[in-house]
Every structure is written in structure tokens, then in C-alpha cells.
Amino acid sequence: MSQDIVPATDPAVYSQYQAKWSALPDTAETWLARAREVAEVLAQDAPQRDHENKSPRAEIALLKHSGLLKLLGPKKYGGGEQLWSVGYKAIREVAKADGSIGMLLGYHLLWSTTANVVGTPEQIERTHELIISNNYFVGGAVNPRDSDLKITSDGDHIVFNGAKHFNTGGVVSDLTVLEGVLEGTEGHIFALVETRQPGIQFAHNWHNIGLRLTESGGVKIENVRVPWKDALGWDDASKKPREDTLLIPFATLLLPTIQLVFSNFYLGIAIGSLDFAAKYTTATTRPWPFGGDNKESATDEFYILERYGNFFAHLRATEALADRAGDQISALYGQYSGNRAALTADERGEVAEWVASVKVVTTDVGLRVTSGVFEVTGARATASKVGLDRFWRDIRTHSLHDPVAYKNRELGRFALLREYPTPSWYT
Description:
Elements: H1 16-20, H2 28-43, H3 46-52, H4 57-66, H5 84-97, H6 99-112, H7 114-118, H8 121-133, E1 138-141, E2 149-154, E3 157-164, E4 175-182, E5 188-194, E6 200-202, E7 219-227, E8 234-235, E9 240-241, H9 254-283, H10 302-336, H11 345-372, H12 389-398, H13 404-417
Parallel strand pairs: 1-4, 2-4
Antiparallel strand pairs: 2-3, 3-7, 4-5, 6-7, 8-9
């Protein structure tokens, strides 16, 4: 199906922001202020856009205009050179208004910095220059639950073939991360490729209940050729993985890094739902007239005040936990990016347990808050035009990405036996 006949939002609606945001922020505080500005724009019609479920070409243009796609990139190529802790908070801010776009920003920040974790020094520099100088948005066709894409070697190139039931943001991306296993080996290879090519065929079948603007449907990969020099972490002469990139604990940091991406957009969505509900309660919710202690305003109702206070306390605690884990991820990257082989398995395991704790708490609290807000807004808040349901639908959809029960088990083994988990595609 051609992208021309797929319903999409119009990038022109946000054209004014290209000039307004022509200069990039230069501090952590101003980057987060920029993220809040983006959220304010998205919040204006978020329920309507969720209902229409169009391919988010305009929203990606808005992210490009804002500069947020460059937030983590080196300054020498035009990036913001911020820490992951700032990136996580930016994801959270955008997700408060629109969970789908917060998720797309999070996945982009992960995929656009994948070379930092598994690439060679030359690949890191080349990848950053490519992405930042062109202000590219990066999607990913990396779904470990499917059979890996098959990779064959053909002279100076590798060739990807296969399919994925899910990819994120690919339809609206400039570059796509592919991952597969090299034929005859157990070696996994990541590579960034141009999205717009005949060998990448999107199914346009993302019709799920939540995160409707993430374009997370299926994709077929057919004879996509990639130069060996672009196989991240592999030596193009020997065609083998480099021990200083792929065969060390540092290379497995990709997984806790993205798991914390998930938790931060869950948290943003949950905070956004409480903010949205508070505005609705203040403006629309009526007091209950049959309680025996009748109030003139819903905002004086004891049970409403109690629920809001309890939700607020749990979200504030969850935010503190997420920030601590973000600081720890940032510290590992800061300490070991120049000497990746020095990161120990125990240090990697420790940060993975912090991230797992955040995942458990953001899932539990997020689902509780996004469903519970209906208790303090009233029956009329269930109308589709209100859009309060999208917050719950968004967290419910993505929190099934990998069962949180396994995170609880993992944390149980750590608490009881002090065992760190073996790194996997989900840990």
C-alpha cells in the first residue's frame, strides 16, 4: 500500500513552529521547557487525533521542528548532547499530552543512539552525523518475539530478509533499525537503513485500542542490502563481532535503557491523565447529592479529594524512583562510554534491577490511576468526545509488551538470593 493513500495528518498544520523553534535549547532546563511546549501543542486536539487514528506525519514534523530528535546527539553535529536522564524526562513531558508521540520520541532516542552501545567508534560518529545533520526520525523493526530476520553475507554487503509482526514508527521514519541473525552463526547484527526503499513493505495494520498514532504494525523485509561497514559492532574485514563492542556487558545496556523509556512514557501518560481529569472535575463534575454530607462543589467532596491526593502521592513517588534510575543509567554511560570493556556484569545487573523496579511500579500505578480517574470525574467523563479513556488504553496496550510478572519474579530472586538476571531481550 502506498503511503499516498494511507490517511495521514498534514505536516503543514505545524509549519509555524519551524521558525519559532529555529534555535535549539542549550541547557537541561530549556530542553525540558521545549518538551513542555510540544506537549502544549499536542494537548490542544489529542482526543480528536486519537479518534481519527491517522498516520502521524504532522506530529513527527512537530518533533523535528522542536529539535527534540537531536536531544542526545553530540553538539559537534548539531545535537543537544544531553544526558539520558534529561531524555527520559523529555519523553515523560510529551507523553503527558499524547502517549503515542511520547512513545515515538522515546523509541527514536533509543534507536538513534544504538551505535553508542553496540557500534564501533567510527560507526558512532558516522551515525550521529547522518541522523543529526539531516534531522532524521528513526524507527525500528526489532521485535524479539518474532523469528529474527535472516541475514546472509554477499561480498561487501549483508542482506536482510523476513518479517516482523510489530515495528514502531517505521511508516513515518527516515531510517529504520533492522536486526537479525547472520546465517550459519548465532551472531545478531543491528543496522540502520533508509526506510523508503522497495524492500521495506509496511502492512499498515496497526488498529489496536491504544497508542494508536505509533504506527506499530507489521513490516516485510525483502532483500534489503546493507554494506558490511554498517553492521554495528562487526568488523567488516573479518566479518566477525568485535570483542570490544559486542562481547561485553556494556553492549547489553540497550535493554535496560529501552525498558526505562517504556516506564517514562507510562509515567507521563499517568500524570497526564490526572492533570486532564483534574481540569474536568473542576469544570464539569457535579457533587453527589445523596451522601448525607452534601457539598456545593465536587471539589469539596471528601472521596474526590482523597482519591486525587492518593493518586498524586503515588505518582510523585514513582517519578522520584524513575528519576533515580535515569540518573544511574546516565552515570554508567558517562563513566564507561570511553572504556566500555570496564563495565562489570554486577554494575550492569544493579542498574537493571533499578529499571525493573521502575517498570513494575509505573505499570501498577499507571493502570490504577488511568482507570481510577473515572471515579472522580463521573459518568459523563466516559463520553468518547472527552477522551479520558485514551490514557488507560495507551498504558494497557504497551504494558503487555513483556509481562510485568516476570519483572516481579526477577526482583524476587534479587531480593531473596541477590541474583542478577541474565541479560536478555527484555532484561
